[in-house]
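Morning. Coffee machine broken again, so started the prediction first thing and wrote up yesterday's gels while waiting. Chain of 340 residues, entered below exactly as on the submission form.
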Amino acid sequence: MRHVSHRVPVDVLLVALLSLGSAAAGAAEFRSIATASSQTATRNAEQIGEWKTGGSSVWSTAEAVLLDQSPSLAQNAEARSSATATFGHLTFVSRTGTTQTSVSGVQPGTRAESMASVEGADSFVITCLTCVEGTRGVMSFRVVLEGDVGMGHASTDTTTGQPIPGPDREMSYFWSANLTMRASGVAMDFPGPGWVSQYGYDYLAMVNDRVVAGGSREGLGVYDLQLEFEFGRPIEMLWQGTAMSSSFLHDSADPVIGFLSAQSQAAFTNSFYWDGISSVTDADGNAVSGFTALNSAGVNYAQSFADVVVAVPEPGMGALTLGGLVLLATLGRRRRTPSP
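Came back before lunch.
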């Protein structure tokens, strides 16, 4: 993977950064949203979040969990998501899972979908004791995008443990992360000096055992970037992150007896964070020492934010796994018990 900056369409960046307003060098603003929905044969559950806004940190969570059981059919559909944002750090987690086990052969289908999205706007000013305001400099800095994504799906006979055709299973996930920066006094038109953009995404969709769509740009990794700026003038930042996933077991027209599952996730632990400024040079290329990169709240972006995160529980899938195993065992016993 090449760790380089990328440019995205001019109008997208201009609208995004200009939306910060004339006070972009002032107070930070963070937004987050999380949604989740689940459906079984008999019930629906959803949690549709609203954008939450804060000046220092913000978080949103959503979950929709359904567990239906009858003498012949058990279904479990689970969707969980969370989104957090604070200075120099975003996390966005989306996880889904569906299972069903049938004794009679009826497979009515079940689905789960979730989404998490975050945004953060902030700015900082680089100064030092010997730096002259308005003169040019170059800063070298690092951002990190890390986490994990994955999918799992199967159709298995509950008695023999062997794979069976079963109804169609659909799984998908998508995540994207974007950081754009503009140095006041340098950046006028995009592209050009005083602008930098780091953008990555990944998506995958599967039907049964076949990949039907997918693509990626950049991805997880460490990105070492540079930005030309002016000492004493604001450097504006816009952070964005989104994660979505879905799991879907179709209705089955033919009788199928077996345990079916579909699980997908787009999960990030320390998803997208600022890892500090490694060096600053003046217009002549001389190293600058003793610099600070302070925002309006006194937060210093010269440091790393790797360990800074809003304390909110990460959505888990433990209940889904445990519930599926319990249902499997219960229905398996029922199926093997001879009729009186």
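The chain has a mean pLDDT of 81. Going to sketch it on the whiteboard this afternoon.
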